Amino acid sequence: MNANNSLEADSHHHISLKEHASYLLQLSCFWLILATYLFPMCKQKFNQVIGK
Hints:
Keywords: Membrane, Transmembrane, Transmembrane helix. The chain crosses the membrane at residues 20-39. With 52 residues, the chain is mostly helical. The chain has one helix and no strands.
């Protein structure tokens, strides 16, 4: 029973690592897209503030 439990834990750990990597990848893509849209707007507002 002990060996079975450790095997399940190991298998679960492997799955969670893959899920974690997938989650991080999606999060990175999300922030990349968000930054692509927000950066020009922030830059424009920043330039307006500097211009004044």
